[in-house]
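Our preliminary data section would be incomplete without showing what the modeling component actually yields. Below, a chain of 183 amino acids is followed by its predicted structure, encoded as tokens that our downstream tools consume directly.
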Amino acid sequence: MAELSIEAIPVEEAGYLSGLSCECYLATFEGTCSDKDMAAYLETVYAPERLAQELSEEDSYFYYLKEGDMVLGYIKVNRGDQQSEEQPRDWLEVERLYIRPGYQGRGLGSLLMDFALVKAGGWDCPYIWLGVWEYNLRAQAFYRKYGFERFSEHAFVMGEEVQCDWLLKRPLVLGQEKEEDDR
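Predicted structure:
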């Protein structure tokens, strides 16, 4: 087995990242809305041009998880004004954490989440947060193991269908929030 690595994704990889994003998203969410809405969403959100723009943004960071030359998944984290929701500028958002179909269940998501936590610590982020679909129970269980708790929700629009995403957060240092509340 080749060694696992986490590497920054260059803007020149936007086309490849588009295909990878669609593959991972479909594997998780196919059948949760109409085929027409799904196709429109994928063509818009994961268009190579849009991903190239996101890859170029300051405070928006993409990283591949690789085994040798094989890409197994990726993570996107945002800081400051690049966060997808209005949150304190010093928080870190995990906007995407995708593992390819066939590679899930190997602890790879944990490697990426641990990586995000290290990044948050290096940037002195007191909190890390993310959004998760209210019916994605598998992902919710994963985030619960990391100490994430629901603090809000927002509408997630897929074409003509409005779904609900839960917003989850955790302090970078678990137990920190309770200590702050006790003061």
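The mean pLDDT is 93. The CA atoms of residues 37 and 160 lie 7 Å apart. Preliminary results of this kind motivate Aim 1 of the renewal.
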